[in-house]
Amino acid sequence: MPNLTQTSTLLKSLGITRPTLILDHQQTLLNIASMAHKAQNAAVRLRPHGKTHQSAAVGKLCHMQGIHTITASSLDMALYFAANGWDDITDAIPVNTLEIDKINHLASKIKLNLLVDHPAAVSALAAGLTHPVRIWLEADLGYKRTGVSYENLDQALAIAQQIEQAEQMRFVGLLTHAGHTYVERSVAGITAVYQQVLTRLQVMQNHLLQNGIARCAISIGDTPACSVLNDFTGVDEIRPGNFVFYDLMQAQIGSCTSDQISVAVACPVIGLYPERQTAVIHGGGVHFAKDMLTDDHGRALFGQLTTITDGTFSGALPAATLTSVSQEHGTLTLTDPTLFNQLSLGDLVLVLPVHSCMTADLYSSYLDLDGQRYGRIPRQP
Q1: Structural domain that includes position 226
Q2: E runs forming strands in 6-123
Q3: Count of CB atoms situated within 10 Å of the CB of 338
Q4: How far is CA 281 from the centre of its chain?
Q5: What is the pLDDT of residues 28-75, one digit of tens each?
Q6: Which of 180, 210, 245 represents a domain boundary (last residue)?
């Protein structure tokens, strides 16, 4: 039987009185080690995305596993990681040429990799760069967010040639984020999307190589594919990010099991309503974000309770679900009366998030189960 009372006692011993982001250090390290081992066995470079954790301390856990390249989602994030020991960083968002001074500053200190998908961006960089950078051409393989379409081979070639002719730029290859794996709910579905993406990338790659481009590496970056696959033949680099913590979304997709999720939010119980078997917590949209899943019965799911066993999270409790959130309130629906009966006003519960990247972004630090505080990148002004 899950012990909510014991978990509350453990959380209170850490001095928690308000919604607090909790890190399971043990499981986080296991998640990182597993992906590092997979990349090593597949002979691909692992360049994990730092946008999930945004923490120098968690970055050090990556260093411990022999990982020395990282991905950022903004130049400010790249600056943060550069100041904390990372010297090979990809800013995995189409380049913002208004930040050319920041780009030049970073490029003078580290190996900086930028993304482009438009000739105007290449022209602006060519006019403003004062230090060498490496350039990835972002490819759209069906996600339809950013990137040159796989169907537009001539445009891809023209941009690659434009990059190669620029003095301060070196063309690296094709980079993509196959975000459409996130709609899948099986290993077979994820694998099918990945194979389609890789086939389309290789068609683009061959077109560039056959038309005078000297080198063209391939970089992919979605956690579902990187989690469920082991063979990355034809790929040079993988860039998963969410795998560091995982979350309920990844568990529903099939990327992980819920006992691999390594962040949760400790929340005080502020209301108990036995007539409807619900509890209200101080924990709402400003503490979890508002990412939502639908459970097997078609009900909204904003989080699920977990407990602490032997110093680690013990997986999701399907009978204890965060079914609604407003700004500060969260409503827990407990379909198992034995769980509801364990709760008292003033208890602390531990809630696994739907989307750990967005939840973690709401906090300035993590607290682990030993009471150690882990800093994060300063919040943007």
Answers
A1: 25-245
A2: 20-23, 45-46, 70-72, 88-94, 111-116
A3: 11
A4: 26
A5: 999 999 999 999 999 999 999 999 999 999 999 999 999 999 999 999
A6: 245
